[in-house]
Amino acid sequence: MEQPALQRKYIWPGMLRLAHWGMALAVIVLLVTAWLLHWTPTVATAASDYHQIAGALLMLSLLLRFWLLLTDRTVAGWQALVPSRQSVSGMVAMLRFYVTLGGAPLPGWYAHNPLWMPIYTVLFLLLAVLSLTGFFMTEHPVVLGVYLPSLHRSVAPLVGLFTFAHIIAVVMHDARGKLADVSGMLNGFRLFEIKQPEIGKGTTEHRVSLDSLKVKSWRPGDDE
Ligand code: HEM
Ligand code: HEM
Fold first, then answer.
1. Theoretical Cys-Cys bridge with 33: which of 47, 49, 162, 211, CB 3.0 to 4.6 Å?
2. What's residue 85's pLDDT?
3. For the chain, how many structural domains are there in total?
């Protein structure tokens, strides 16, 4: 007879969380101020000022995140964003979870959600394009034949779409799953559901190898 138990493990390093929340705050302010810049000429000057300030915060957070991608050997490194063969079954299970609006079970995973791994990589590239175009376009609107303000404006809605979908997704994971994923991005700890022999039923000892959790797309039951 197996009883599920929760294992709490430190997963998200402080520097990754700092980069995440810096980026999240900056992107939300950038989206709001960009909308104001476009639609409300009366506050355009103030919106432009806050857009530039949030732009500076985004560039700092992104620099920190890129530095971690290159130097970190744990979950903040670029290797953690490369899907493995096990990630494919996790991706399919995640799609099933979204399509059924949380009716199908939420699969387990180690650090980055398997379906979102490639999306996070694309997001980092889009944010780099927005930062570079935003930084240079006032002084040098045309670079190598590309009109930077147009490029800046075309990439912006993709980041808006990501932000909308990401917030809905993480709220769904937290609300429909049992593992408090959003807290993980605040305090660094993720919870893992592990099956272990029931205490008092023929055994007094139960062990779970933490290494068994370190596959990129861990699913409930994999520890048996
Ligand atoms: C404000 C509400 C937000 C909450 C509650 C939130 C929460 C989370 C959580 C729980 C994860 C881990 C998901 C996983 O297991 O894969 C995550 C990851 C991530 N989030 Fe957010 N997020 C928010 C906003 C944003 C915004 C606005 C952005 C950028 C546009 C963003 C970018 C990311 C990225 C890139 C990751 C992957 C972690 C990394 O490798 O840096 N998040 N977020
Ligand atoms: C998530 C990131 C960003 C988004 C979604 C975004 C979005 C936009 C949009 C949609 C506009 C055009 C507004 C209009 O139609 O008038 C715009 C303008 C502009 N953006 Fe961004 N942007 C981002 C990041 C940045 C960054 C990092 C910088 C600076 C380093 C920047 C600097 C500018 C500048 C200088 C303008 C011209 C308008 C002005 O402020 O006077 N943006 N942005």
1. 47
2. 87
3. 1
Answer yes or no: is 218 within a domain: no
C-alpha to C-alpha distance for 86 and 132, rounded to whole angstroms: 35
Q: What span, in angstroms and rounded, lies between the C-alpha atoms of 170 and 181? A: 7
CA–CA dist 173, 157 (Å, integer): 24
Residues touching ligand 1 (Cβ under 6 Å) are 16, 20, 23-24, 27-28, 65, 112-113, 116, 120, 123, 162-163, 166-167, 170, 181-182, 184-185
For residue 24, how far is its CA from the centre of ligand 2 (angstroms)? 16
Given this model, what pLDDT does residue 3 score?
66
Q: Which pLDDT belongs to residue 32?
A: 98
- Residue 211's pLDDT is 58
CA of 14 to the centre of ligand 1 (A): 14
Q: Is residue 91 part of a domain?
A: yes
Of all ligands present, the nearest one to the C-alpha of 24 is 1
Most confident of 71-80, 82-91, 174-183: 71-80
According to DSSP, the residues that pair with 195 across neighbouring strands are 4
* Residue of the CA atom closest to atom 17 of ligand 1: 185
The answer to whether position 219 is within a domain reads: no
Q: Which domain holds residue 10?
A: 2-213
